[in-house]
Recover the amino acids of this structure.
């Protein structure tokens, strides 16, 4: 028996989220089925965390226990062949026996991508959130700065799984802007259910002038959900990286794919 | 009766090309049907040129004759509502009676987008061409420079419609590169059938070391199709702009959408 960890990119619009559930194809089930088909082993895959339906991942991390001694690279290729392209294992390696994708994770980085064209762009409709209103960046950056640090983020979470604590630390919230395109990059030591989407929704509400940046302080203090902004839709959200204290996946990072990219022209 | 011109963005994977054909939904048919539905007028739309199945457009231009005096902005909104999102009219204006989207066009700008990740990225699979091999940029730029100018591009066209001449002028071929992503921006006074895709395929063959840059001179001289490179697939191709001698679509250009864009993270 050995422990194998893998880095996974997937199109969230092709699956009903990460976690296995009866009757709806999840990413977890797709990989477990590919392993069963390939190795004849009934395997449980443990991800670093769940993603909801529609949420994309560029570098999700998961691990599992395998009997098979199949070479890592051949295993990855064979799995990718079976997965059919909407989910791609970019890296796969045998690791220390007690590595755990979820419990060993010390942080995560998410991206949220918004298009602000006057009309909803016809291309990539499942890959971004479209907002008709132009966004004011200065108040958004003000609001973003107020989120950084250790806070009780209860107001920024929707009722989901019950967690022992709703205190989390946000390391950074960066706001990127280009013509008709705004992105948020949020990194923290952990996230509550729908927390990134609620941060994104709050920043968008601030950018549209519906909320003042000071509203963030108020929501962090009151911990009342209604004091924060709306929950932005799933399709703009990308799990970019899972952070560990140890180096994982040595060598050059090719094949994770990316948020499809634009050229200036 | 008045003449109306429009700027149109569409997801090429959602239509069987630009031109109306029985039994397959084309962009032309979608817009003509929307006009019939909205105004009760049987209208023919004239595009600046055709695009094949899978080819995207960010700023296709078309015109038509209309009886209706409906305000331009309301007409555009009503058409977009009926078009359902995979085809968006970004601009629409009443213009001089004898404007012709095709005959008045003096040039076009196309983009071709290639992903070079080791594995085919799961997101946006209909929006780029994926090449597994890393590409050498220097010989590609050398080859690109050889295409610029007035040449007989017969070798860079597949047998399609018969044209009186196969001589065209390429104004520029720019090669853009980023991590795991290469783009070509080609501008010229006109293009033969499959010409941009064959230029892209030839540049890719040069980038992969299958062809020397000098092969471009040879193909331009011989005008033999086999002397040029392969025809790259439709999904990487974008009609970016149609060029006219007169200013068309005054005001700020919002809503054309874009090649979906990436942020550095």
């Amino acid at each position: 028996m050995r422990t194998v960890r893998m880095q996974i990119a997937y199109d969230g619009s092709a699956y009903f989220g990460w976690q296995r559930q009866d009757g709806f194809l999840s990413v977890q089930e797709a990989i477990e089925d590919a392993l069963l088909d390939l190795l004849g082993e009934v395997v449980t895959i443990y991800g670093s965390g769940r993603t909801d339906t529609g949420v994309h991942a560029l570098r999700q991390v998961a691990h599992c226990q395998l009997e098979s001694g199949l070479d890592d690279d051949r295993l990855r290729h064979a799995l990718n062949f079976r997965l059919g392209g909407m989910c791609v294992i970019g890296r796969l390696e045998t690791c220390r026996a007690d590595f755990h994708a979820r419990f060993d994770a010390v942080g995560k980085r998410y991206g949220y991508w918004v298009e602000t064209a006057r009309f909803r762009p016809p291309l990539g409709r499942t890959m971004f959130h479209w907002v008709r209103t132009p966004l004011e960046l200065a108040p958004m950056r003000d609001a973003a700065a107020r989120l950084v640090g250790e806070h009780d983020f209860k107001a920024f979470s929707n009722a989901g799984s019950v967690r022992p604590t709703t205190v989390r630390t946000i390391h950074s919230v960066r706001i990127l802007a280009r013509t008709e395109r705004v992105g948020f990059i949020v990194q923290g030591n952990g996230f509550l259910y729908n927390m990134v989407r609620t941060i994104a929704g709050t920043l968008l509400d601030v950018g549209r002038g519906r909320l003042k940046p000071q509203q963030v302080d108020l929501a962090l203090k009151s911990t009342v959900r209604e004091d924060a902004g709306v929950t932005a839709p799933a399709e703009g959200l990308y799990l970019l990286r899972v952070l560990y204290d140890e180096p994982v996946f040595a060598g050059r990072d090719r094949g994770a794919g990316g948020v499809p990219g634009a050229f200036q022209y």
